[in-house]
């Protein structure tokens, strides 16, 4: 029987990063993955394929709607080749997954394919094609991730009533895609198919889309997506989803409690994800799982069993790849006796629609709830020279700073390339910068980043220069 210092169960961004860091720190490491490709949800059916489709559909949309205004004429009709777009996405995915395999080999990490399940707290059975092998692991990291959640009354047939996994590989552009859930997945994939020509209707239970983000971002994003042709029903409670041949009928109660009926040919259910521990046999090791299915951990990300840790989507907190990665590094370093730290308040959140939405720190709603006195500085993207040059004029940047100390408490952005711009806010906040600090730093001209400086100027004595 092979013995390892550490076994990692699951090869998503949490698991594979943990494995690399463990190996770097001199631990003999194995990674167990039930699928034949490494990379987990993020690389196979999440972040990477969704961004590949967002980028491809963005090019298509530009060619159809925006080239002309830039003086670019295409003789003949711009045509969509969905099969080719999907093939490209698949090749981006496989190259990325191969990259993870390369990193495992480079770091001398044993990759074991099969479903990992605890035999006891130091032994793991790995089953593949009816055969089981057992390894001994002094320590184990559970990184088994998450799966799409569903509503109890919906029959996900995975053909027409689908999750993100199927939406990433449709063979045709829907005529009318009904999206249940106006969160990250619904809006990103809704925008992909809207750009490719589908009618898209989003049904959201709460009173605004992306409800966990600052309400200024929800408002602006909904406005822009409406302009792009996406329809919204907020404060609307779905009651039933039925399939009749190729037709999907969604019934819901709207904000006035009036029944509405939507008919489409596809229904994307994107109402969140649930932690995944099926088949793990956590009981055999005595690992506690809470009532929501999450593996319980303490502040060291250690379970109730002292040699077993858990990270990523399977534990509490944001279900984000970069959060899982930070936790992977954190656990490896903790095991090695170091004292790492994660500032959960500074994990940025991004929605990769166009315009992109990005945020870090506290929302205005949170500050109000916590009774913190704050100042606000806002700057509209349309006032930037760079935005006018590109034609990407939608959006704004909002900085919230402590009323007395001027410390930046939250940064909320919507606009072109804000997914990348948010890194400046994270850096500033990690170093506990004041709005004045950001306002006094030189930002290259003409860039979208100038809006960060201008919002900081607005937050300090209302002295934005270009508005
Ligand atoms: P996962 O990536 O879910 O990996 C878990 C792995 O464990 C899987 O490979 C699974 O097969 C394996 N596994 C489970 N049980 C066992 C077992 N018993 N034995 C062996 N293997 C097992 N996040 C972002 O930050 N940015 C994005 O742009 C983004 N886009 C997304 C788009 C979509 C459509 C989706 C669905 C998610 C997206 N996410 C994004 C979220 C991101 O994918 C997750 O937060 C991230 O993958 C979590 O990483 P993880 O390592 O915890 O788990
Ligand atoms: P989500 O939590 O982002 O959004 C779910 C939405 O569905 C919410 O707005 C919620 O109010 C709504 N909802 C819940 N129940 C409903 C109901 N009965 N009827 C109508 N609406 C309902 O979840 P989503 O979009 O499924 O994504 C899952 C996870 O994947 C997210 O937590 C996110 O962290 C991660 N992800 C991250 C991405 C990124 O970082 N860009 C991209 C895609 C996914």
Description:
46% of the residues are buried. Helices cover 33% and strands 26% of the residues. The chain contains 14 helices and 22 strands. The protein starts with a strand and ends in an 8-residue tail after the last helix. Strands 1, 2, 3, 4, 5, 6 and 17 form a seven-stranded mixed beta sheet that branches. The protein has a five-stranded parallel beta sheet with strand order 8-15-9-10-11. Strands 18-19-22-21-20 form a five-stranded antiparallel beta sheet, with helices on both faces. The radius of gyration is 24 Å and the shape is globular. It has 467 residues and is of the alpha/beta class. Helix 1 (13-24) packs parallel to helix 9. The structure holds flavin-adenine dinucleotide (FAD) and 1,4-dihydronicotinamide adenine dinucleotide (NAI). The site of flavin-adenine dinucleotide (FAD) has 36 residues, from helix 1, strand 2, helix 2, helix 3 and strand 4.
Describe the sheet with the most strands. Answer: 7 strands, mixed
Distance between the termini: 69 Å
Mean pLDDT: 98
Strand elements, count: 22
Shape: globular
Low-pLDDT residue spans: none
Instruction: Please state roughly what percent of the residues sit in beta strands, choosing from under 5%, 5-15%, 15-25%, 25-35%, 35-45% or over 45%.
Output: 25-35%
Helix-strand category: alpha/beta
Query: From the alpha-carbon coordinates, what is the Rg to the nearest angstrom?
Result: 24 Å
Helicity level: 25-40%
Quickly count the helices: 14
Ligand inventory reads:
flavin-adenine dinucleotide, 1,4-dihydronicotinamide adenine dinucleotide
Cofactor: FAD
Protein name: Dihydrolipoyl dehydrogenase
Catalytic activity: N(6)-[(R)-dihydrolipoyl]-L-lysyl-[protein] + NAD(+) = N(6)-[(R)-lipoyl]-L-lysyl-[protein] + NADH + H(+)
Pfam families: Pyr_redox_2 (PF07992), Pyr_redox_dim (PF02852)
